[in-house]
Specification:
Layout lengths: L13 E6 L7 H11 L3 E6 L9 H8 L15 H8 L2 E7 L1 H8 L6 H8 L4 E5 L3 H5 L1 H12 L3 E2 L3 E4 L5 E5 L3 H13 L12 E7 L3 E2 L5 E2 L6 H12 L3 E7 L10 E6 L2 H12 L4 E4 L6 E3 L19 E3 L3 H7 L6 E8 L7 H12 L3 E6 L10 E8 L4 E8 H17 L1
Parallel strand pairs: 1-2, 1-3, 3-4, 4-5, 8-11, 8-13, 11-12, 13-16, 16-17
Antiparallel strand pairs: 6-7, 9-10, 14-15, 17-18, 18-19
Helix pairs in contact: 1-2, 1-8, 3-5, 4-7, 9-13
C-alpha cells in the first residue's frame, strides 16, 4: 500500500542558524539547543571565523546536521540556494559588524552570505560587537538599510563585553533570542519598527509586602508577561523603561532600562516618576491591594496560642492614579487577573474594571488552574474603552505582547 506524503502543516519548522565570528559565538550553542529541544529542525551555517571560536563537531552534535561554510561542499545539493529557499526562518546570532555590512551590500563570499541572499523567509539578525563598532556611522547605516528591506535587526543588550569593557553591544540572552525567533515563526510581521521613538513604560512581576524580616504577602506573578511586553516594544523601536517587581531571576531584556522594586509603594513611586515623560504606560504587574499596617522587626514565632490577627491597610491604586494624572495624548493599558463566580463571568468582571479604572485598553486574564501565572503561554481578552473586544488565543507571551502593541499603535494613530 502506498503511503501519502506527510502533511506539510505538521513538519518541523526549518531554521538556518547563521553564526558569525565573534566571541559571542559560544552562546549560539545554547540558542541551538533551545531551538532543537523545542521541536525545530536547525541547520547551522557558521562563517570560517566562527569555527575559530566553536568547532563544527559541536554544532553537528547539537543539531544532528552537517556543518559547512563554503559553497563548494555538497555541490549536487546546491546548498547556497536550497538552504535559503527551504527555510522558515534565517537567524544570525551573533551578527558581527562585518556580517551586517556584507548583508547590507549583497556580498556573497561564503555559504552564509549566499543563504541570506536567497532567503525568502523572515531574516532575524542579532548583533554582537563592541560599543564603538555598534555606534559607528557605517554600522548604523547598514542596520538602517537592512531594516528598510524588511530584515529584523535586534537591538543589542548592554553589559560585559570582551575583556574588561562594558556597554551596548552584548548579545541578548539566548532565551530572549529564541523567544523572538519563535514569535517570528508564528507571525512574520510581529516586529515592525512602528514604535520608533515612542517612550514606553511597562511594569511587570509581583509586589511583596513584608510581614516580618522573613515573611511577606505576595502573589504568583513571575513577571514573564511584563518582560515580554518590554522586549517586544524595544525591538519595535520604542525607548522602554521596565519597572520590575521581584524579578531578579529574569535577565534584563535587550535595549530596555530596568528599574527594580519590591513593594507596592516602591512600584507606585517608580511609575509616577517614569510616567512623567512616557507616551505609553502598561501596568502588567500584579500589585498588592493590601499591605500589613506595620512590619514587625522580629520574626513571628510559632507558639501554642493562636497568632494575633494581621491588620491590613489598602495600597495606592496605581493604575487609577496614572489615569487621573495622565498627560494629553498618553495611552494607558491595564491588566486584570480575574476569576469568575456563580453570578459574574471573568469577562464581565473585566468590563466593569475597565469602566472603573478609565484606561484605554485592558487585558483580561482568567487565572487559576495553571492559567496565566508561572507558565510560558497566555491568553485573554483585550478590551477597549471604545467598546471593542478582541479574544487573543493561547500562544506565547511574546505573541500576546505583539497583539497588544498592534492595538496601542492603532490607538495612537487615531
Amino acid at each position: 500500500m502506498s503511503q501519502s506524503a506527510p502533511d506539510a502543516s505538521h513538519r518541523r519548522p526549518r531554521i538556518v542558524l547563521g553564526v558569525g565570528g565573534g566571541i559571542a559565538a559560544y552562546k549560539a550553542c545554547e540558542v541551538l539547543r533551545r531551538l532543537t529541544e523545542s521541536g525545530h529542525e536547525v541547520r547551522v551555517v557558521p562563517t570560517e571565523s566562527a569555527l575559530r571560536f566553536v568547532g563544527a563537531a559541536t554544532f553537528e552534535a547539537l543539531s544532528g546536521q552537517r556543518v559547512h561554510t563554503g559553497v563548494f561542499e555538497d555541490v549536487p545539493e546546491v546548498p547556497h540556494v536550497r538552504l535559503g529557499q527551504n527555510a522558515d526562518l534565517v537567524l544570525v546570532a551573533p551578527a558581527t559588524a562585518n556580517l551586517l555590512a556584507k548583508a547590507a551590500h549583497g556580498l556573497a563570499d561564503d555559504l552564509l552570505t549566499n543563504t541570506l541572499l536567497t532567503a525568502r523567509c523572515p531574516v532575524l539578525m542579532v548583533p554582537a560587537m563592541h560599543t564603538e563598532m555598534w555606534e559607528h556611522p557605517a554600522t548604523r547605516a547598514n542596520v538602517a538599510l537592512l531594516r528598510s528591506r524588511g530584515v529584523i535587526v535586534l537591538e543589542p543588550a548592554s553589559g560585559r563585553l570582551t575583556g574588561k569593557d562594558t556597554g551596548k553591544g552584548r548579545l541578548p540572552d539566548p532565551a530572549e533570542i529564541v523567544d523572538l525567533a519563535r514569535l517570528l515563526l508564528a507571525r512574520s510581521d510581529a516586529l515592525p519598527q512602528d514604535l520608533a521613538g515612542v517612550r514606553v513604560v511597562v511594569s511587570g512581576g509581583g509586589t511583596r509586602e513584608p510581614l516580618d524580616p522573613v515573611r511577606f504577602l505576595g502573589n504568583r506573578s513571575s513577571g514573564r508577561q511584563g518582560y515580554a511586553l518590554a522586549r517586544v516594544a524595544a525591538q519595535r523601536g520604542a525607548r522602554v523603561t521596565l519597572v520590575g517587581a521581584n524579578t531578579v531571576d529574569l535577565p534584563d531584556p535587550a535595549g530596555v532600562d530596568v528599574v527594580r522594586v519590591r513593594t507596592a509603594e516602591d512600584l507606585h513611586q517608580a511609575m509616577r516618576v517614569a510616567a512623567e515623560t512616557a507616551d505609553v504606560l502598561v501596568m502588567a504587574a500584579a500589585v498588592a491591594d493590601f499591605r500589613p499596617t506595620a512590619m514587625l522587626g522580629h520574626k513571628i514565632k510559632k507558639t501554642d496560642r493562636d497568632p494575633d490577627p494581621i491588620a491590613l491597610t489598602r495600597t495606592t491604586d496605581v493604575l487609577a492614579e496614572l489615569v487621573t494624572e495622565r498627560r494629553a495624548g498618553q495611552v494607558i493599558v491595564g491588566f486584570a487577573a480575574e476569576t469568575g463566580d456563580a453570578e459574574t463571568s471573568v469577562l464581565d468582571h473585566g468590563r466593569a474594571k475597565l469602566k472603573r479604572k478609565g484606561c484605554d485598553l485592558l487585558l483580561v486574564n482568567e487565572v487559576g488552574d495553571g492559567s496565566a501565572f508561572e507558565i510560558p503561554d497566555n491568553t485573554g481578552w483585550l478590551l477597549g474603552a471604545d467598546g471593542t473586544e478582541t479574544f487573543i488565543p493561547t500562544g506565547s507571551k511574546a505573541q500576546l505582547a505583539a497583539v497588544l502593541w498592534d492595538a496601542v499603535t492603532a490607538l495612537r494613530a487615531t
